[in-house]
Amino acid sequence: MERKKFYITTPIYYPSDKLHIGHTYCTVATDAMARYKRLTGCDVMFLTGTDEHGQKIETKAREAGITPQQFVDNIVEGEKGVKDLWKLMNISNDRFIRTTDKYHEKAVQRIFRKMYDNGDIYKGSYKGKYCTPCESFWTESQLVDGKCPDCGRPVQDAEEEAYFFRLSKYADRVRHLLEDTDFLQPKSRVNEMVNNFIKPGLEDLCVSRTSFTWGVPVDFDPGHVVYVWVDALFNYMTALGYENDAHDDLRKYWPADVHIVGKEIVRFHSIIWPAMLMSVGEPLPKHVYGHGWLVFNGGKMSKSLGNVVDPYLLAERYGVDTLRFFLLRTFPFGADGNFSNELLINTINVDLANCLGNLVSRTTAMVEKYFGGTLPTEREDSDGDCELKTMAATLRDRYEAEMEKLQFQNALAEIFKVLDRANKYIDENAPWVLAKDEAKKIRLATVMYNLLETVRICTTLLQPFMPESCEKIFAAIGACECCRGWDKANVWGSLRADVTVTKGEALFPRIDAEKELQELAAIQEAQKKAALPNLEVEPLTEENVDFDTFCQCDMRAVKIKACEPVKKSDKLLKFTLDDGTGTDRIILSGIHKFYEPEQLIGKTAVAIVNLPPRKMMGIPSCGMLLSAVHKEKGEEKLHLLLVDDSIPAGAKLG
Ligand code: MSP
Q1: Where in the sequence is the domain holding 595, given as residue range(s)?
Q2: What tens digit of pLDDT does each residue of 521-558 get?
Q3: Which of 123, 125, 349, 412 has its CA 20 to 30 A from that of 457?
Q4: Which atom of ligand 1 is closest in space to residue 16's alpha carbon?
């Protein structure tokens, strides 16, 4: 019989920065689904990759002084890059596409031309707001306080020639797809799309850019590059061989069974993507699943906020399987989840150490202790065994129902109900009491077998989540290859009667939560600091000051005759200055954090002397000393402006 095909994808990631726990969440979830489908016997194609074009990458590469290709190569292929992370996380993708792969770029050119030839792409002009320093077009709604959302500078009205895709033509068909089919899941995302985008009216989409060059060139109109989302979305098909001959399994796997995507890119996948597929006459993916975000303290993770959680740190500290498990056990897949270290440590202790780990180690230890590791084959059932046996034997169905809906959290909850029940079963049967009575040996063996069988069934179903740990558990409970499969997960009694166990090392050691949380917070704080820019200076003021206004500022060289802290103030230093007039000038300056008085006495500084006097802590300050400020690793630094001591007091600066 031919195996059922299953094609599943993650979004292809922007390699503009290192990936964080949010990206890891999305990929681990997709991986669990792919592994689950393989477990059930499907012929799975699992695709992931990177989306490498666009202005953001071009700008970042320029800032780093390297070519865009070098920039993306570093983040995708380099140390601790995207590919390294997926390897570490044990991601079982069958294929990895980079949109800079030549076969993909050529295919995108053909696709663009196809839509141009069929009249769905036409040339028009794009009106918007332009930020000259950033070389970026923005729509009115993208502006922040009327200014460029990237740099905050003023924008100008501008118009550029561009190609447009006739998205409006497909509005009715897309609406029908969203409202009348189960194409987009969960259902709540449908309302978001229809209310926010379809009902207000779909406008044609600008699908080319001329303001930067890092993209797939429109081959029939030099100067235009293909809009990054057109380029990116078609990855799902070019990776299988659409419009190229680098691969040839398009007809085998397309249409995709499900595209897993984060909520903010549901619009691209559920409106623009189907419309483009309609245009090129290809079948639509069966489903798009829009999952929620992992947020940190309620806010979006972002490098600039310094709150990104590093998957490397967590995987190295707690293990890859533990991290995979935590991500899918803790957060409902369709909704946002609030990441916290407390949740992580708690999940490790409650589910992995106390429940699963403890069950496996207690059971194998008892089989070793009471039977030398191998069970005798006789059994003596009791009515009390029924509940556990039935729960375990019927678990597969409940699990399957949840997995088919991508409800990983619920699927795992079903497994843990059975594991909890098994732990309770140990206490109810008190094997240590049975072991004392030779006449109860067979009953004891039965209890042990029931526990091992329960562990086997649960482990079979845990494989998509924790592949390596499950191998270890199977080895510990003596489950041979032939009883680890899906077909045996609902068959009670598959483990051989005279099974031999091998107690290994503790799989999931318990963590001292208080100590661990402190250490983890300290490491994360250090990481946050290290991620801050080394040096940061304020952006230059764009607005000009007229020359006469500038000249009104009277700047003089001043000699520091005396300097002392101001009483009851942590910040202020009181300077007694020779400004060349013969009368001492007093200036107060809030720089005690940066200098001790003795470092400054005798030095020549610069003061603005015609500011109106200002009282601070009751002392009038007559002017202002100039200093230079910047940030280093987020920390404010200040240098009092000191000039050559040969400059006489009172010399005018300008
Ligand atoms: N390049 C596009 C996707 C193109 S697909 C044809 C893109 N890339 S991305 O790197 O910005 O995001 C990739 C995926 O990671 C998205 O689905 C996004 O939702 C997901 N996540 C990024 N941060 C996330 C969280 N904090 N939490 C969960 N998922 C998040 O979009």
Answers
A1: 547-653
A2: 999 888 878 777 777 888 788 788 888 888 899 999 99
A3: 349
A4: 10
